[in-house]
Amino acid sequence: MDIIALLPSLLLLALAAATQGFLGFGFGIVAMTTLAFLDQQPLQHLAGVVNLTGLLVAGGGLWQWRRAVLWRSVLRFLPGILLGVLLGVSALGGLPADFLLRALGLVVLLLAVWNLLRGRGATHPAHPVDRADAADPVGSADATDSFDRPERLPEASHPTQPVDRAGPLPEASSRAALLDGLVGFAAGVLGGAFNTGGPPLVAHLYRRPESPDALRGTIQALFLSISLCRAPVAWGHGMMSAEVLWHAACALPLVAIGLRVGATLGRRLPAWQFRRTAWYALGLLGFVLMIRQSG
After folding, report:
1. DSSP conformation letters of 145-179
2. Which of 67, 90, 70, 89 is nearest to 78 (CA)?
3. Contact residues for 168 (Cβ-Cβ < 8 A; gap 6+)
4. 279 closest CA partner among 5, 11, 25, 13
5. Distance between CA 81 and CA 130 in Å, rounded?
6. Domain count within the chain
7. 184 and which of 77, 144, 253, 263 could share a cystine (Cβ 3.0–4.6 Å)?
């Protein structure tokens, strides 16, 4: 493939990486929605490219917050993630392309509507400084809207060592473990099929009263787990062709730049406004994908 012909998709991957750098999530859903809308490559090809470039995105995030990861919590999600990825990749390989594109559009549209409705009660922050660990803790009632919260989690240059609550607290109960497994399965299905496994994980984990650093690190570990599980499964299904590898390799420099740009902007711009605008745009793209594939 000519790199000039790939340039539009490379720029969209950079945009998705900038979204991830800004918000801490969003790479997969932004990349898959915009690339599918561009309609230059088959969905299986796009999913492989986003999968491989997502390794860099999630790996970088995990490295930044590696000391804060709640590893025992991560382990409770892994069985469900693996089963979900197997099912998601199988569906991607076995179902008709037009059905999958309509399904992708529907998933994105529903996620956009869900997050926008949950954010209707949110108002402009009364102060420009994040207060996620003070007046508005992550576990508080005002912080449950994980995808449209008006305030970002605080940046910490030296995350403290987390206390993993997977042991003595009620989260370690069989019911909580089962719920983690089900959420992991849902994330695995969406991640295996469309690389969009983030919403169930973020919505589930950001309700917990852990430190912002611990939540960020754990989310990145789970994102990377989905990508690492998906890559060999997709390879076994013949979805990691030489063209996919070349496309992903060409995208990596721009993805790295996008991450840096997004992280820089994230320290200067209000995240709540960006999130809301992004969900409106993604919802519109999801709707157009459904209409276009139905026509």
Report:
1. -TTS-SSPPPP-SSPPPP--TTTTSGGGSHHHHHH
2. 70
3. none
4. 25
5. 32
6. 1
7. 77
Instruction: Output the CA–CA distances (angstroms, integers) from residue 111 to 127, 202, 248, in the order listed.
Output: 28, 12, 26
Please write the tens of the pLDDT for every residue from 158-180. Answer: 445 555 544 444 445 788 888 89
Print the domain residue range for 74.
Answer: 3-294
Best-predicted range by mean pLDDT (176-190, 218-232, 272-286): 218-232
3-state secondary structure 266-287: HCCCCHHHHHHHHHHHHHHHHH
Give the whole-angstrom CA distance, residue 213 versus residue 278.
24
Q: What is the pLDDT of residues 214-244, one digit of tens each?
A: 888 898 999 999 999 999 999 999 999 999 9
Q: What is the DSSP string of 200-250?
A: HHHHHHTTS-S-HHHHHHHHHHHHHHHHHHHHHHHHHTT---HHHHHHHHH
Mean pLDDT on 268-292: 76
Q: Could you identify the residue written with the tokens 């996919």?
A: 244
Residue 148 tokens, joined:
């449209």
- Tokens representing residue 233 in the block: 């499964």
Count Cβ atoms below 10 Å from residue 14 Cβ, excluding itself: 22
Calpha distance 240→231 (Å, rounded): 8
Q: What is the reported pLDDT for 147?
A: 40
Mean pLDDT, rounded, for 70-89: 94
| Tokens describing residue 169 | 């607290």
Amino acid at 92: L
